[in-house]
Amino acid sequence: MNIAVVKYNAGNIHSVRLALQRLGIDPLVTADVRKIRSADKVIFPGVGEASSAMENIRQSGIADLIPQLTQPVLGICLGLQLMCRDSEENSSKCLGIFNTAVRHFPPDDKVPHMGWNRIRDLKGDLFHEIDPDAYVYFVHSYYAELDPYTVATTDYILPFSAAMQRDNFYAVQFHPEKSGAVGEQILRNFLAL
Amino acid sequence: MLAKRIIPCLDVRDGQTVKGINFVNIREAGDPVELGAAYAEQGADELVYLDITASLEERGTFAELVEKVARTLNIPFTVGGGIRNEDDVARLLDAGADKISINTAAVNNPEMVEILAKRFGSQCVVVAIDTKHRETGDIVYIHGGRTPTQRVTQDWAREVVERGAGEILLTSMDHDGTKNGFALEITRELAENLPIPVIASGGAGSREHFVDVFKAGKADAALAASVFHFGEIPIPDLKRYLRENKIEVRL
What we know:
The complex is a heterodimer of chains A (193) and B (251). Chain A has 193 residues and is of the alpha/beta class.
């Protein structure tokens, strides 16, 4: 299976690659638009700041490419946020795959939301054999609002989209690559799509 | 609700864990990679690897170890010990560590916290604070607890938050090694008043101590070494006990 991990100025690309290798997949980590287009599946990871990430993927042509992809695509963390309409993080216009706003958590508790939290109201193939209320690992200060594309919900300060799906586009706010056995199962589910 | 985290800490010298280990189901007790994987399997929420190597030459061995850990482990891990500058941090993060922890270097050069937070993101910058209670107040120590500073623990904690630290690892030197329980007062003072998570360390001896540090100490996470390494408190038992005591943990 030919898996492309989108390479740009994001922080967790290395750990996503290692997680796939633990599952027996050696992904192609690339910024090459043609290689990404021809992959069987595409993973769009990310830890970092939204506006500089958008700037980076616009320059490399990846921003134009991603919404046109027809194979399964999995956004992770910042990847999910960049797939939304816009982000409060430095007022960034994003890819608009999900017509959803990304907002900063209100300061009613510690921010970033860091650590293990539960996912509930699980829908769709990504959560095959995942227990409702399973714990996954989060690190983020911005969140995507709930909307019709939400396929998993987490509560921290308020309920937000822990995962979203529209057609072939999948996205998770948490880090499956750091979420133990549960995260591995979610990655396997994506690879099995 | 965000779960309280249980974090075993592994001291590493020359690529081997140093404290005595009494652990079932691992082939080589001193292998930090295998031990870490066993902890992850048992339900540890994160791990901390501390490089207690004294010499510069051996620092490379530690970076190699970090790479192996990153390949194996499917939960987050922090590395610390002997980090002096930005380059050390870049090397360890490149090797696959999720977070780094700095202590003496931050006290000697507080701007480093800001530089690291800007370059790598606050989420991966843990500031470790070794504190000791005195009649005059709580004082920060450096050099692995050997050298007292003029800094007041609470003030220093606030300062590192302002400079962009993502987490504080608070070790009470009065409690460390005693097995008499965590330092609840100072932990609570920081955990309640700071906008970032506080990991409590030092003094774990029983399951009740963990209940105390989460309930009375308001800690976001608790770190321990020997009670886990010697199998005195198996992590699955500890987590079940915490849940029985109405503390949110990942089981």
